[in-house]
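Below is how a single chain appears once it has passed through the pipeline. First comes the sequence as given, then the structure the pipeline wrote out for it. We keep one example in the README because the format questions we get most often are answered faster by looking than by reading.
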Amino acid sequence: MTSSALGRSVPIIVVMGANVRNILWLFVPLLAGCASGHVVPAVELATDAMAQTDAPVQIVSIAANGDNLLATVTVKSNTDRPVMDFDISWSIFRPANCALGTPDPRLRRMGSGGTSARAEDRRPGETLPPGAMWGARALKPHEETDITSLRLSRDSLLKMAGEFNAKKVHVQVGVPYANYSPPPGTTTHIGPDWRDTAWERAGNIFDLEDAAARQACKE
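Resulting structure:
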């Protein structure tokens, strides 16, 4: 698959692995370098769904579409109880030794995001007009379904890569909070019913070992 940039064919390689990772290599020309014919090195964008064995909702896979790296996020209930709602969050960082030019052994946080999500109440045979969203419902016990309401722009990550002098940008995606459907007749609910305390302790990074070591660039 190729993309055109300033009249040149630019390779974009997308690799889907068993570890639920999307890796995109993009050659991004700097405007200042175009006149001199120079092109900056490839920027690697890696999007990983984190393994959370004790979470009531787990992310199964992530699929990009166009500029949106989180166009379809497939989740699966890991509990016998209906889940009323849950959060999907992502942490963005430059791994160790992934700075352009001078190696930097530190993990550099670049940003984060997230939103509350619910199972989408799709109707068989119906399609949505552009910009519309499905209604919401509870996630059924052990159900697997797609969430299509999230957005993380590839272009915004490439811009951040330039701002943080990064040759690799890694995004961890996971579920930090979840609420079960309350019993019938319940009028007050104080949540969350489940929280990822390790994510909270690590400063909103789902897998600190993965972020600090396994994602590091080779010097």
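The helical segments are 31-34, 154-163, 197-201, 208-214.

See the next section for the split statistics.
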